[in-house]
Write a structure and sequence with these properties.
single chain, 334 residues, 5-stranded antiparallel beta sheet, 8 helices, D-amino Acid Aminotransferase, Chain A, domain 1, alpha+beta, Rossmann fold, Dna Ligase, domain 1
Length: 334
């Protein structure tokens, strides 16, 4: 078994077993800087990875070090980690033959233990810090913060009241879309249930009693000239755009467009918008985030959301934007 000696120069990459392109790119960028990295697939715990956390009040640091033994045959120690890239934190996987109630308990305990291990890495630089990620994932907080930073956001209603949804529909003149607060998919494969941003018709609200069981987000539909995916890394903005006019389905959600219609093009945002985005990300405490915006036919920029762990691989692969280099630099910077 190989033992990595604790010299406090390791970048720990947290991801899952189906994640490759972006992880490989950042690991390579770190290697060119002479920095070691170690990939930990969080879904491999607890079946294929083992963790131990030692707490001892007689030690000067009163804690560890914690040790994490992975299926790759390498032991890493918390005191050798200088930075953590929290690319993706995935749910643990278990043998489906386990009793469902016992599996649920095992899943909760496994998640809690990993949280405990990660809490022992508070000396390291995180991209992003888990607490900031958690707060930033609250969509209504995002929209409020965007407004505080001077960004325009669509008129929005989050409700489980059918009548309020009908009133809002009339307020926006019938130009309304619906979306979820949180994605239902937790894997890179096809989700058993997934809801794209979808247009709402008046008849959809005639019987909207399902809202009593599950609140939804309703927004005014903004006409698009293009839809932007902006990879924000420590103040730098890497912008890709899709021409919304190429697809009627893509006018509502670009993921619904045919792949031949989703041609990414490099773009820049005006200096004032870039400045407001930097202010917005600073208010959320995020070093990285994938920002979605709309550029209207009139040239106005409208903020939709930021995903603290959103995808950027297509921007680097198709446009050659050096996002992996920027993330590596953010991890090793002081």
């Amino acid at each position: 078994m190989a033992i990595i000696q604790p010299v406090n120069d390791l970048v720990l990459i947290l991801t899952h077993t189906a994640d490759h392109y972006t992880v490989d790119r950042v690991a390579a960028a770190l290697a060119t800087r002479g920095v070691r990295s170690f990939r930990f697939d969080t879904d491999s715990f607890p079946l294929e990875a083992r963790a131990s956390i030692h707490i001892d009040s007689s030690r000067p640091d009163s804690s560890g070090p914690a040790e994490l033994l992975t299926h790759k045959g390498v032991t890493i120690r918390s005191d050798e980690v200088r930075a953590v890239w929290a690319r993706k934190l995935w749910a643990p996987s278990f043998d489906q033959a386990l009793d469902p109630e016992f599996r649920a308990m095992c899943s909760a305990e496994s998640a809690a233990m990993l949280q405990g291990f990660f809490a022992g890495l508070n000396h390291a630089r995180w991209v992003n810090d888990p607490a900031s990620d958690y707060k930033a994932e609250i969509k209504m907080r995002q929209l409020r913060t965007a407004i505080e930073a001077g960004l325009r956001v669509p008129k929005t209603l989050n409700t489980n009241d059918p009548e309020q949804a009908r009133v809002f529909y009339r307020e926006v003149g019938g130009a309304m879309v619906a979306k979820l607060l949180k994605p239902l998919s937790t894997s890179m494969g096809a989700a058993p249930v997934f809801m794209y941003t979808s247009e709402v018709a008046e008849e959809d609200l005639a019987d909207a009693e399902m809202l009593r069981h599950s609140p939804m987000v309703f927004q005014e539909r903004i006409d698009k000239a293009s839809e932007l995916r902006i990879a924000y890394v420590a103040g730098s903005l890497f912008v890709g755009a899709i021409d919304a006019a190429r697809s009627a389905r893509g006018q509502v959600d670009w993921r619904l467009a045919d792949p031949s219609e989703c041609v990414w093009q490099e773009q820049e945002v005006p200096d004032d918008i870039a400045s407001r985005l930097r202010d917005f990300m600073a208010r959320l405490g995020l070093i990285y985030g994938a920002i979605d915006m709309i550029r209207t036919p009139e040239g106005e920029y409208v903020f939709l959301e930021v995903n603290p762990a959103g995808e950027w691989g297509m921007l680097e692969k198709n446009l050659g934007l050096p996002i992996s280099e920027a993330i590596a630099e953010a991890l090793v910077s002081k």
